[in-house]
Structure formats: C-alpha cells, structure tokens
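Chain A, query sequence.
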Amino acid sequence: MTELPLVLLHAFPLDSRMWNAVREPLASHFRVITPDQRGLGRSPLPESDREPSLEDAARDVVALLDRLELDRVVFGGCSMGGYLAMAVLRLAPERVGGLVLIDTKATPDTPEAAQSRLDVAERVEREGIEHWLAEANLPNLLAESTRTGRPELVETVRAIVESQPPAGISWTALALRTRPGSLDLLRDSKVPTLVIVGEEDPITPVAAASEIAEAVDGATLVVLPDAGHLTPLEDPAGVVEAILSWYPATHEK
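Chain A, predicted structure.
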C-alpha cells in the first residue's frame, strides 16, 4: 500500500507558514505539500472580473495537483483551508482520498458573519491592513491561555497576518462570505475524515466539529485541550499525533 500525499491548506488571514511546526514531523512519514492560496503569502492574485469565489481557489488547488501529477491526495485544511478542502471535494471528488478538517465548520456564514466579511474587505480597500487586522483577529485566532502565556507565538501569528497583501485579504474575505454549506456534501462523500478542534476555539467550536464528525460515517474527532482556533500552531504535537494515528485509514488499496 502507498501513502497518499497530504496537501495542507492554511487559515485566513495567514499563509502556509502556519504549518511550519507540523510540516517536518509529518513529512518524515509521507509527502506533505503546503501551498499558499491565491492572493496570500507568495501566491499572486490573478486578474479577473469574476466575483470572488472559493470555487476559483479550488480550481487553483486542482491545477496544482495536475502540475505535480498527483491523481489523489488527502486534503487537510484549517479554518478557511477546511472550507477550501470542501470546495475541492465539491469540484473534483475523485481527487480527494481523505480529509483532515481542522478548526473549521461545514455551515455557511450567517448574515451577520457575511456582513462582517464585507466590512473587512471594504476597510482593507480603504485603509490597507496595517495597525488593525492582526489586532482584530488575534483574540479569536488564539486561546486566551496562548495569548497571555506564549507571547512569542502571538508575535509569530501577528507577523504572518501583517505580511499579507491587502488585495488578497479583501478578495478572500469576499470569497468566504458566499460559500455554500457542505454538511450534505460530506455526508454523501464517504471520504475517510479526521476532525480536529481546539477545545477553546471560539470561531469554530467543538460543537461545529462534532456536527461534521456526526455527519460523516466513520469520522474520527479529536479535541485538543488548551488550544484555540489555530491548533497547528498552538499544539503542533497534538495535531501531528492525531494525523499519524489516523492516516492509515487513507491507504490506497
């Protein structure tokens, strides 16, 4: 049997550096690919007249698989990365050999959340991201215990957020607000699924993770204590252990 490669899709408003602490431990077991999503990190934002949509970001991911000549992979996604993994499952289910859904949910934005994303996009277009985007997001991204007791990690997250291209932040915020719900998609897919969530995650709480795990037959749910919305940064060892313990379920026959 051959291990499928693992493609890790990052959270918003970060880039693939959020996987730094888990990449090497996982890569000693199977191939790990950590792309930046369009407009974020080192990936350019293509010129387009189309309305921002996660479907276009999903097409980017499928194009990456084509370039790497990979037929099927396991997709792991944190927060927005989970939404994107589900978008790939909707677009090209034959390319998805497994899912690792980390601190994410399968429901669409509420009207209030959609309005908040629109507000973010409009503010970015007016002001850029300096002096406010990181501060606005840090309380929701990291557990309170992390924010008070691990200042170096707080600064790492702040630096990643503050280095993002404003146009990419705006595009992504607009794309996220129109994503569809994916519970029925997951329920029907029968893809091997691991769900990981920080016990102190205020954005996509344990209840949202449980909803996914209950919808997918045979899914595994792992709750990591003392972690918030960015478990790969807050508890990388816990994330690595969860993935390695589960990964044999995705072996190709």
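Strands lie at 6-9, 32-33, 73-78, 96-102, 193-198, 220-224. The chain has twelve helices and six strands.
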